[in-house]
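ingest -> validate -> predict -> emit
validate: passed (alphabet ok, no gaps, 616 aa)
predict: started
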Amino acid sequence: MNDFLIRGTLADVDPDVAELIRHEHARQLDKLIMIASESYVPAAVREAEGSVFQNIYAEGYPHADMHGLSEAEILDYESQLTFYRRNGDRRYYKGVEYCNLIEALAQRRGAEVFCPPGMTPEELFVNVQPLSGAVANAAIYEALVQPGDTVMTLDLLHGGHLSHGSPVNVTGHRQRIVHYRVNEETELLDYEEIYELAQREQPKMIIAGYTSYPWAPDFHKFRAIADSVGAYLLADIAHTAGMAAAGVYPNPVGVAHVTSFTTHKTMMGPRGAVIITTDPELAKRIDRAVFPGLQGGPNINKIAGMAVMFKLAKTPQFKALQQQIAKNAVALSDGLKANGLRVVHGGTNTHMVLLDCKSIAQHDGVPLMGNVASRILDLIGIVCNRNTIPGDKDAGRPSALRFGTPWVTQRGLKEEDMREIADVIALVLKTAKPYTTPTKKSVAYTARVDFDALMEGVARINALVAKAGRDFDLPHEGYPFVWYAVNGQGPGIGHQGPEDRGRGTEVRDRGSEVASRIEVSGAQAAAFLSVVLGIDVNTLADGAAVTVLGRNRAPLCVATLARTKDGYALDAPANQASRVTQWLRALSDGYVIFDDADLSADIPGPVVVRLVAGRP
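emit:
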């Protein structure tokens, strides 16, 4: 072709990025992702988001007369294109006639999904342009309050969000922020306390809706409190919009003055945000605050994805999914409690559960903390996040974990599976021995767990992964890099990295014993092996017999040491090689107990450990 268009698939144009995407997709299917703010976006939504709408600049908005049109009227191309040619729109660019249609379609479908009883979709004003929830909330601040005004929000440490006035966020810079908190005894919102605080502080805006408070708020009580002081009520349902759309969570539209939410959490849509109000004057102020106030041209391709997302949100399947998400969260909460663990706030009626790590393990007065607990669970295939809870002093040292059930529910897991997950969490984390290490300013909290418990957790999560549904088959070998997966025994699809493929299955015959080769490489390989073998490997010759040391330096197996161009190799008995490989990888990661008497003893690393030959 005599043009300058770049053609070819991603694999043709950039095989490295294509390979990274395959690994990431495999990771998403290979683990149980329990991040409360994530979900698996349907392929149809991703297809719309990857469309040629990506190519168009469309600063501004569709013509105001398109508000209130039915879906059939919006998709009447002849009439709409005729109207466009004669009347134009509120954009700064031409070539946006179809952008107007897709944005109006997304707005209409969003209005239909969130229209409360007693109202019609025409009474809702929907802005689908915010690039994120933080931008949406910043725009609402811009539209509703003035510099110096008081805004009342839930404390970040108790479940509020950065964009609700945190001092590290722009929303905390220009207004006076006062925080309400959960009751110290019940860990629940106390509406009398919130009312009294509002009377004292006289806020101009109150925010209800949270990032890590697991109970649905009473929006009617919040509206009454806001009305009592003449404040606007902002309902931020970023986490729970999908549940609200399905009737599993209270819909604040028509109760709050303004509702905001993101579209990539329980809505299962593209990464963006929506603002809804029923007040036409507030709608004008919000539109101006979004554009040109805070951002330029909207991502029309994401708006196309939102249009598909809202259509899916009207299906019975979507409603059943949201109902199961809530059931699964309750089952997870109950399962954690049954294991003697403390669920923060007493439970949940949404999609999230918070777990107090301090209730799980302590060692020499040092509690288990959220950061290290989340990293340990990630190793066995449970992906969650550290989180603050009431009682924490700062966000840098959260003492809890936050779990969400949207993604695992999408993959078909039910209540009994949530109880199994709770059992595995307890199994692994109860073996933790926390300790601290000094830093320049203070100390860092870390922990190590029992290797056998870790491996049992890997196997049990692997079984749940195998049970969970997939949307397509991935290559077995090498996707993704899951280092504990050896011979199909880990949580992963495969057991090799790409560099392992094609190496064959070479074995070495030493009399009646068959050996499997384990390679250890990296800058720290010699120092790592010197600790693990209990002898300076620099003093050993190739072929030397060595003993791999297990917990408390008990012998794990006897192997033969050899040097390679990248480091070292251990030729170990074939029937022990898988376990030795997993043990070495776990030591490299640094979260298993090597010496009970000296938990903080540093094992050099990290190193790369490969089982490359003679798989039993």
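The longest strand covers residues 513-521.
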